[in-house]
Specification:
The complex is a heterotrimer of chains A (about 120), B (about 400) and C (about 100).
Chain A lengths: L2 H5 L3 E3 L5 E4 L2 E5 L2 E7 L1 H8 L1 H14 L7 E4 L3 E4 L3 E3 L10 H9 L12
Parallel strand pairs in A: 1-7
Antiparallel strand pairs in A: 1-2, 3-4, 4-5, 6-7
Helix pairs in contact in A: 2-3
Chain B lengths: L1 H4 L2 H11 L2 H14 L4 H25 L3 H44 L3 H18 L2 H12 L3 H9 L18 H15 L3 H12 L7 H29 L10 H47 L13 H19 L4 H7 L1 H18 L3 H4 L6 H28 L4
Helix pairs in contact in B: 2-7, 2-10, 2-11, 2-12, 3-9, 3-11, 3-12, 4-9, 4-10, 4-11, 4-15, 4-17, 5-6, 5-10, 5-12, 5-13, 5-14, 5-15, 6-13, 7-12, 8-11, 8-12, 9-17, 10-12, 11-12, 12-13, 15-17
Chain C lengths: L3 E3 H4 L3 E3 L5 E13 L2 E10 L18 H14 E5 L3 E5 L2 E4 L1
Classes of the chains: A alpha+beta (about 120), B mainly alpha (about 400), C alpha+beta (about 100).
């Protein structure tokens, strides 16, 4: 397996195929990958430079509870093909802060937010 | 009937690429000024978009990965962000133009000025994207857009000089740079990137599996030629009516007029309904594509198959894109000209979209035995070269001709 | 290497040989699946300005002939694989092959 090619920038999907996030970075403990990191805080760090700092700081400001980038332990990865498939459903993971905020305050309040198209 | 309805995704995608408001006016303009001398460009465009939409459809049916997902994965976050910026600008500017186009069609029907219609159209569009099922949108507007066939039929009834299609020389009073500028504008809009974003994401929305490969192909090989044929209708009727008189066409009203000349009030009414459906369809295609690209770049949940609460960021991007488009329109900028400026951004967006599709369509990890054959590869590389050449030539031609003026 | 690193910290790191001569930059990492997770076994080091090579470093990537041939020629000339055990990270942005 090639870490950058097979994991970085791949789509993470839950056991039903619902998108969870991109693999924006990988956490290493020694030489072993222990977690997938996803979210714009992790992505910004990969960019570097002014743009990277802007992405990271914007994401940081949106992350009101200061949880840091979302961390998905590698144990939850079921298989890797054209996407990274998790063995759990997305509801079991912490929701991204912006998604939760929008659900509670804006998009989730519009009538019809519960109906699939 | 189900089978017939299964191809509406391709038709709607193609309508948004070939007969959206910018194309309706620019093909009409090309026809008025150069007769049928640009007909071959439409053929080249149809083949090009067929080649790449077929690959994109195949990749998303087999691997369930839509196009922008692959762009980020193969090109990395930085280069993909350049593509995202270019593609998003094209898509939102086109969205603005389409909202303006629907408003212009309503102005033709009601004589109330289009700027008054604009906010109403935007609200209607958002409601449709928020509430209506994907398949319903696709069927209603894909099929309604087909009423534009009346334009093609009117070109057949009018006195069109068909032989001039093989006579590729600018007529007296026109020059080669303007000819090529219009040719590149028509080609770039035939291959505009939001078509493959929309088509491949639509395949995922419809839950295509490898068994749907045939459905995908029928969509491509029926939908896009049909779109090209509708565009040819505008070119031909303009060549028949305006070219002999030496009249320049730059408004929507002039574009649909020949249908009235051929079939009277009914022809005109049908053409306006067709324009309304096609531009509204293109507005949906671009509105959704804006959300698809951003969400797929960041890996967010997206699409109408999910409950909106599950994909709040996607719906936020769609909403903000509509607002942005309306804000641009309310500056009273000409909605049709807005799309012409977007040619600049096609220069980065087109190669950076089609290269990853071509590479992934050859990857056995993704497609197994469904990888590209020789024909798809030869055409794919050929079109990549054409796209690059057009991208390089577009900007100097734009400056030289003052945007085809 | 510090205990809590990210893969992106390793990508782009300059690699030099024991005499200080430039070998290239790390563009990817080979890993084997273990019970704890993927364990890095080697670094893919590329000389020249190339970053991602569109996936052509893998055998599964196929034609179009023109692209594949060009990418593989670049890779043959410019790519080396260095076993992980032979890399020493003496500075955050530099590793030495021992």
């Amino acid at each position: 397996m090639l870490l950058a090619f097979d994991l970085l920038d791949r789509q993470i999907v839950d056991r039903d195929g619902t998108p969870v996030g991109k693999v924006d970075d990988l956490e290493l403990t020694g030489a072993v990958v222990t977690a997938l990191l996803t979210g714009q805080q992790a992505l910004g760090r990969r960019f570097g430079g002014a743009l990277g700092r802007w992405i990271t700081s914007t994401a940081y400001r949106l992350d009101v509870d200061r949880l840091g980038p979302r961390r998905i332990p590698y144990d939850l990865v079921a298989r890797v093909d054209s996407a990274v498939h998790l063995s759990v459903r997305v509801e079991l993971l912490d929701p991204p802060p912006l998604e939760r905020w929008l659900d509670e305050h804006l998009v989730g309040r519009i009538p019809g937010a519960d109906d699939a198209g | 009937m189900r089978r017939l309805l299964a191809v509406t995704l391709g038709i709607l995608t193609a309508v948004g690429g070939f007969v959206d408001i910018g194309d309706i006016v620019s093909t009409s303009e090309a026809g008025a000024r150069f007769g049928l001398a640009h007909a071959w460009v439409l053929v080249v465009g149809v083949v090009g978009i067929c080649v790449y939409a077929e690959m994109a459809g195949r990749v998303s049916a087999v691997s369930t990965r839509p196009v922008f997902d692959l762009v980020r994965e193969r090109l990395g976050p930085r280069v993909a962000l350049v593509n995202l910026a270019g593609s998003y600008l094209i898509t939102v500017a086109t969205l603005g133009a389409e909202i303006g186009g629907v408003a212009l069609a309503l102005q033709l029907l009601s004589s109330a000025p289009y700027l008054l219609w604009t906010p109403l159209v935007a609200v209607l569009l958002w409601l449709a994207l928020w509430r209506v099922r994907f398949e319903t949108l696709e069927r209603v507007f894909g099929l309604a857009g087909l009423t534009l066939v009346v334009v093609l039929v009117s070109a057949l009834r009018l006195d069109t000089d068909w032989g001039s299609a093989t006579h590729v020389v600018p007529p007296p009073g026109e020059n080669w740079p303007t000819y090529w500028f219009l040719a590149i504008a028509l080609f770039a809009s035939a291959m505009t990137p939001y078509e493959v974003f929309f088509f491949s994401s639509g395949g995922v929305e419809e839950r295509w599996t490898p068994r749907d490969l045939t459905v995908s192909r029928v969509n491509v090989f029926l939908g896009f030629p049909l779109g090209g044929l509708l565009a040819f209708g505008f070119l031909a009727k303009s060549a028949a009516v305006f070219h002999p008189l030496g009249i320049r066409v730059d408004t929507l009203g002039q574009s649909v007029l020949p249908a009235g000349l051929a079939f009277g009030q009914w022809g005109l009414a049908l053409a306006i309904i067709g324009v309304f459906a096609a531009t509204f369809g293109a507005a949906m295609e671009t509105g959704l594509s804006a959300g698809y690209t951003v969400a797929q770049y960041f890996g967010w949940a997206w699409g109408k198959r999910l409950r909106p609460r599950q994909a709040t960021r996607f719906h936020l991007v769609v909403l903000l894109s509509i607002l942005l488009a309306v804000a641009a329109l309310l500056t009273t900028i000409d909605p049709v000209q807005l799309t012409e400026y977007m040619l600049i951004f096609s220069a980065v967006a087109l190669p950076l979209t089609y290269l990853p599709i071509l590479v992934v369509a050859n990857d056995r990890d993704y497609l197994g035995d469904k990888v590209n054959g020789r024909v798809a590869n030869v055409l794919g590389i050929g079109y990549l070269v054409v796209v690059l050449a057009a991208a390089v030539a577009a900007i100097p031609l734009m400056v030289m001709t003052g945007m085809g003026g | 290497m510090p205990a809590d690193t990210r893969v992106s910290d390793l990508l782009g790191v300059r690699v030099v040989d024991s005499a200080g001569r430039r070998v290239g930059r790390i563009v990817d990492l080979h890993a084997d699946e273990t019970d704890d997770g993927p364990r890095i076994t080697a670094a893919v080091v590329v000389r020249g300005p190339w970053g991602r090579l569109l996936g052509y470093e893998r055998a599964q990537a196929g034609g179009p002939w023109l692209l594949e041939t060009a990418a593989r020629a670049i890779l043959r000339r410019d790519m080396t694989t260095v076993p992980w055990s032979r890399l020493r990270f003496d500075r955050p942005d530099r590793a030495t092959v021992v």
